[in-house]
Write a structure and sequence with these properties.
This protein has 179 residues and is an alpha/beta fold. It has helices at 2-35, 44-54, 71-78, 90-103, 136-146, and strands spanning 61-65, 82-87, 109-113, 126-129, 152-156, 167-169, 172-175. The chain has a seven-stranded mixed beta sheet, covered by helices on one side. It binds S-adenosylmethionine.
């Protein structure tokens, strides 16, 4: 009898494990792969380099495309701009909002549970992105169509196919002068 209960509990645990695996693949990993990129956080030293490369002047508006745990949004806000992160993973949205509260910058750092493909970029003058190579062509077209002439884009690891970068430092690309 005891053995039967043991095996039943084991079976239940196995079932739970399989269900959570299926859930994460189909609802978290698969959709983010399809729409943009899976979650890989930018290393802290790379965050610093991205902010330095952007040479941020206080007062503007920044957007991080796929904001993860909010580390770039927090760094952008600390650099003096109003920072917005767009993220489709609700767990990461909650985590980023918690991190922003902890950092004490809720007045200038905001996370939106929304696909960046559905956002109009025209109000932003700094864009940061850590995407995937296969979205860069489509993203380039959207950015060039919507951004104002003086906007800057900083991309971690992936270059745009046609837009010539103005600077490149250790795998970080800076884009200006979209015209
Ligand atoms: C490579 S991670 C980068 C996270 C963060 N920006 C960083 O640098 O640490 C990419 C993030 O984009 C999110 N993402 C993918 N497609 C998206 C979309 N269409 N709209 C908003 N977020 C998206 C993923 O959920 C993931 O958290």
């Amino acid at each position: 009898m005891n053995l039967l209960i043991f095996f039943l509990i084991l079976l239940l645990l196995l079932l739970l494990l399989v269900c959570s695996f299926v859930f994460s693949v189909f609802f978290l990993i698969f959709p983010t792969l399809f729409w943009g990129a899976i979650y890989v956080p930018t290393k802290p030293e790379v965050v610093k380099k991205m902010i330095n490369l952007a040479d941020i002047k206080p007062g503007g508006k920044a957007i991080d495309l796929g904001s993860g745990d909010g580390r770039l949004v927090i760094a952008l806000a600390k650099a003096g701009v109003e920072a917005h992160g767009y993220e489709i993973n609700p767990f990461l949205v909650r985590l980023a909002q918690k991190n922003i509260r902890k950092a004490g910058i809720s007045d200038r750092a905001f996370i939106h549970l929304k696909s960046f493909w559905k956002e109009d970029f025209s109000k932003f003058n700094i864009v940061t992105v850590y995407g995937m190579s296969y979205i860069m062509g489509k993203l380039e077209l959207k950015l060039k169509k919507e951004l104002k002439a003086d906007a800057k884009v900083v991309s971690n690891s992936f270059a745009f196919p046609n837009w010539q970068h103005s600077k490149k430092e250790e795998g970080i690309y800076l884009y200006e002068n979209k015209d």
